[in-house]
Amino acid sequence: MKKTGTVCNLLMFLFIVCLLTGCWDKEELEDKAYVIGLGIDHSNHKGQIKVTLLLANPEVGSMQGGGGSTEKPREIITFDANDFIAAKGTANAIISRNISYELLKIIVVSEEYAKGSGFLTTVSDVQKDKEIRLDGHLAVSKENASEFFLKNRPKMETRPHKYFQYMINHGIENGLIPDSTLFRFFNTTYRETELYLAMYVSAEKNKHPKVQREDEYMAGQVNATGELDDTQFMGAAVFRNGVMIGKLNGQETRIVNILDDTTNIKDILIDLPDPFSNKKKQISARILKTKSNKVKMNVKSARLKIDITVPLKIEIMSNPSMVDFAEKKNQHIVKRQIINHLKKVNEKFFKKTQTKLKGVPYPLSMYARRYFGTIQEYKKFNWRKSYVNADIRVHPNIQIIDYGKQTKSLKR
Amino acid sequence: MKQQLGKLGLREYISIAILMVGAKATEDTPIHLFSKVQNASWMIPILSAGIFFIPLFLLLKTMTLFQDKDLFSVIQKLLGKYLGFMVCLLIFLISSYAISFDTRSYANIIRTFYFTTTPNLIIYALLMVVCTYGARKGIQHIGSVAYLVIYLSVFSLWFALVLCTQKSTFQAIFPIWGPGKLEILKQSSQKLTLFADFFLFTMLIPFLTSIKQYKKGTWFAFVYVSLQISVAILIYICLFDVGMDGLAYPFHTAIRFISIGSFLPNVEIIFFVTWLMSAFIRFTAFLYLNSLMFGHLFKIKDFEYVIPSLATIYLLIGSIPEAAVNASTEFKALSLNISGPAFAAISIILWLAALLKGEFKREKNRNSM
After folding, report:
1. B77 against A408, higher pLDDT
2. B64: exposed, middle or buried (C-beta count within 10 Å: 0-12, 13-18, 19+)?
3. Is A379 helix (H, G, I), strand (E, B) or coil?
4. Residue in A36, A71, A262, A52 with CA at minimum distance from that of residue A166
5. CA distance, residue A260 to nearest chain B CA (Å)
6. Does residue B223 carry a pLDDT above 90?
7. Cα-Cα end-to-end distance for chain A
8. Domain assignment of residue B340, given as a range
9. Most-buried pick from A16, A98, A241, A369 (CB within 10 A)?
């Protein structure tokens, strides 16, 4: 009797296994084509957009130690559609597998389309779609998004999902591109108080790039030669209310990333003017930010006053003037120099945002909220208007934690 | 009632209470709160708990007079046969309404985020079948399973919340008073429904070893749950800020957004499974409570046999709303506004009835004798 019971139970477990297929939502990896990159361009047909899908082949690179298939790692198609949700269906006329947005990493919009008014309504479909995750990133490309994907041929990382993941992660860690998740896009657009930064990308190199000081480049301007792929991720496109209004170069984007506590920067390598030479030499330094900013505001006065204290830890990496950093005097000079430099650069940048962009490119308004009791009072204060006329002071709080491996340098 | 009644332990009772009430942080309740009081909505659970404390305290005081009697027996004893029956029927109808649309909203969540092409009715029916199976096993089994699941479910919820804090900005809770202090007070008195389940738990008193144990468990669960819901909403606010207005289910949107480091993105399935288990317990217990009430109302001794039919009726009622949006905004919002205040009022009426009838005095005399 007991035996029959056990057998019955086992049979029931076997029956439950059938349920694991998920009934209607049965999915097979073989049958799926995952869209990694989605391109949106202006279309010549009225009311339509040009959609580009970058599809990854899940079979490539999944085998350990070779022996994988010889299929291509990716496939790119471009066509006109009403929106990118219904485009999944249309694309199945060309792609053999079932198309899914589940692993969408990056949405690339051409600069031309991002400047138009249609962009916001198009991208809002992301919120309605059930597959797209809000941790995907938004990027603006100099050329058409369809060309961007075609020209982007990475040499080492041929699997597109890995390529974009690494490119974006390291770009953000180095501070040269903003952490432009879709989540942030919608939050910023809902909040209506600040500007949104999307990463600026290009797969087209400028014909005659100007040589500039470190990092004052936009994507496509870095002059690199050799055996490489021309795709560059650098700088940011500025959006106000979902419409692109301007650009920031790599250096300005880095300033924003250092100021913004909501972005996770790791450590950033920068150049500072060398205080010991008059020949425009530069010291390289590593900036670490471990603590959050302290922001004080005076919202009661006629003109908004903002005091931002930025705590930074700095490691000096090079010593072009060959000075002895073991001496207290030299340490003081360097420290003062860095403070003055950062203060100048940051305040200049804020001035630019007030006059040119007419808004702050990171959630600074969050700090203003605590001075108000209710939402109505805060709305009446009108952050956007107050910010443009605000008096902003930046106080870098520097701690030099390292002067390099060797404090004494060679004598000239 | 059956003679050999298995008893429910204290920790099992607490587990059931936490799973049933605490789960409200993970469905669409936070959105209902947010749409009214925006970034101050994290205060509502605490304030409501403060307000609901009074009727709950009075109710428990009244219940202590009748050692080991359940809610419906007490109501019928205090309010008489006919009036008592009407009040009990009202309680049963309200909680039936609530369970119908609560289960529907869970089916909606599962369909929206995880099984997008499966028909809603299939998911809904499966949910009800599992709950019926569990409820048929009786309250002792529900209690043991709840105790098995409670650590996992509480841990995974807090883990998800901690992961959310990585991406959130604390300043989002300012301006601290949201739309104004008066509005907050008004809403927290309306949203007593958050804790309405505690009123229904008084049906379980005969299953516990003593009313003292019951009181201990209730107060512990009450304090913990109000904190849990409040902290959860606070973290949603910090994460989504004003963007929360457009969401339907913040917990599930959040777990789709977070990741454990960069190696483990897309971790929602871990949280989904534990969430699903606690959802099963929640509705199993709720279904059992409802059938217990039904059995009491219509003097059905073996009320376990009506559970499948009740579940079917709830399934049919829950299927009335056409789309997920209607279920949440029209049907569920109604129960969210009504049942709490109604239960609070009944508790106070019971206490008044006991006071007027002199039950408290009699108790005192009995004690002094």
Report:
1. B77
2. middle
3. helix
4. A36
5. 11
6. yes
7. 97
8. 10-368
9. A369
Q: Kindly tell me if the per-residue pLDDT of B3 is higher than 50.
A: no
Are the beta carbons of A104 and A136 closer than 8 angstroms? yes
Element (H, E) at A50: strand A49-56
**Tokens representing B211?**
């009313």
Residue range A266-412 forms a domain whose CATH class is alpha beta
What is the rounded end-to-end Cα distance, in angstroms, of chain B? 31
For the segment A154-205, what is each residue's pLDDT rounded down to a tens digit? 888 778 888 888 888 888 888 888 888 888 898 888 888 888 999 998 888 8
A10: CB partners within 8 A, 6+ apart? none
Domain ranges of chain A: 29-261, 266-412
Give the three-class secondary structure for B56. helix
Residue B248 corresponds to which tokens in the numbers above?
């339907």
Helix (H) or strand (E) holding B101: helix B81-113
Choose among B116, B117, B172: nearest Cβ to A366: B172
Residue B165 near chain A (CB below 8 Å):
no
- The arithmetic mean of pLDDT across residues A221-230, rounded, is 77
Judged by CB atoms closer than 8 Å, whether chains meet at B240 and A187 is answered as yes
pLDDT score of B202? 87
Instruction: Return d(Cα A198, Cα A191) in angstroms, integer.
Output: 17
Residue B176 near residue A371 (C-beta atoms within 8 A): no
Q: What is the CA radius of gyration of chain B?
A: 21
Which structure tokens are listed for B362? 């009699």
Report how many domains make up chain B.
1
Cβ pair A108, A149 in contact under 8 A: yes
State whether residue A169 sits within 8 Å of chain B by CB: yes
* Residue B203: predicted pLDDT: 86
Across A149-158, A327-336, B113-122, B261-270, least confident range: B261-270
Identify the pLDDT of residue B312. 93
Q: Which amino acid is at B265?
A: P
What amino acid occupies position A370? R
Determine, yes or no, domain membership for B5. Answer: no
Per CB-CB distance under 8 Å, the chain A contacts of B117 are: 24-25
Q: Dig out the tokens for A79 from the structure.
A: 């066509």
Q: What does the alpha-carbon distance between residue A66 and residue A60 come to, in Å, rounded to a whole number? A: 10
Among the partner residues A134, A367, A374, nearest to B257 by beta-carbon distance: A134
Q: How far apart are CA B268 and CA B114, in angstroms?
A: 10
Q: What is the pLDDT of residues B226-263, one digit of tens each?
A: 999 999 999 999 888 888 887 888 898 888 888 887 67
Query: Chain B contacts of A134, Cβ < 8 Å?
Result: 253, 256-257
Question: For position B243, which CATH number holds?
Answer: 1.20.1740.10
* Closest C-alpha to A312, from A348, A273, A353, A261: A261
- Phi and psi torsions of A15, nearest 5°: -65, -35
> In 3D, which of A88, A34, A37 has the Cα closest to residue A61?
A34
Task: Measure Cα distances from A311 to A265, A269, A332, B93 in Å.
Answer: 14, 16, 17, 60
Q: Calculate the average pLDDT of chain A.
A: 83
> B175 preceded by cis ω (within 30°)?
yes
Please check whether residue A198 is in contact with residue A242, taking contact to mean a CB–CB distance below 8 angstroms: no
Both structure tokens of B367: 């004690």
Q: Give the pLDDT of residue B4.
A: 46
Residues B294 and B300: beta-carbon distance below 8 Å: yes
B163-B166-B167 Cα angle (round to 5): 110
When pLDDT is averaged across residues A24-51 and rounded to a whole number, the result is: 84
A12/A122 Cα distance (integer angstroms): 49
Give the helix/strand (H/E) hosting B120: helix B120-136
- Nearest one of A221, A237, A217, A206 to A140, comparing CA atoms: A237
Confidence of residue A138 (pLDDT cuts 50, 70, 90): very high
Calculate how close chain B gets to A385, using CA atoms only, in Å.
19
A contacts of B167 (beta carbons < 8 Å): 183, 262
